[in-house]
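re: ur question from yesterday

yeah so i grabbed the chain u mentioned. its 239 aa long if i counted rite. heres the sequnce exactly as i have it in my notes:
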Amino acid sequence: MAMVAATGGDLVRAEARAAEAIEIAEARGERWANSYAHYAVALANWRVGRHAEAARHAMTSLRLKSEFNDLLGLAVLCETVAWIATSACSAQQAAEALGVASMVWRHMGSELVVTSDNWRVPRSQCEEVARSALGDERYGTAYAGGTAIGANLDDAVEHLLTVCATVVAAAAGHVPTTLTGRELEVAELVAVGASNKEIAARLVISIRTAEKHLANIMKKLGFTSRAQLAAWVVDRRVS
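ran it thru and got these structure tokens back, copy pasting raw so excuse formatting
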């Protein structure tokens, strides 16, 4: 019932029915229906433009699904995370998530998303927006990066969790203007894969100072990994 409501964009009904399902599931230690209940809330929130809430519930669903082999559930979650990223103006991560999704569908041996307008239409729109923002070449590179990640299901889940965390952090008001000029230089070097030692050498500062700058950046942006920061830098260039 929650999924039907979510597909129709009825957030109130979707949240109410999902809350009932989650309560029943948690009382019994059940995970499969629990994960889909959170997925329904994620989908409903995305449809009404509440991207951070959508990302939070997608993260919960991902963590639950990572505990058992629900390939179909993971595949549709990949798609939805891509839609959330696109709506949150994260074209790079949307393209990567679509690449991850393509590999998860391959793990299943089919791509069921093409049979339903509920997934086919948003997916086509997501791809169109991401490709338009990045250009064909950069979109192709990001998508290919996603397919490489999706070859390993554990890596796929971790990457999607990072995408969701980035959306949540952005919605909390962590914007580029909060960084100093030096911090932006450090962030750019992180994005190209530089280590703290390499950053220190490039900027002619001590390694300890480089580490301090990186810690400040992570705190300001609400990130927990260099991968999140690298994705933020790429999206900042696009915007």
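noticed a couple things. Residues 122 and 128 are 10 Å apart (CA to CA). also The chain is about 80% helix and 0% strand.
anyway ttyl
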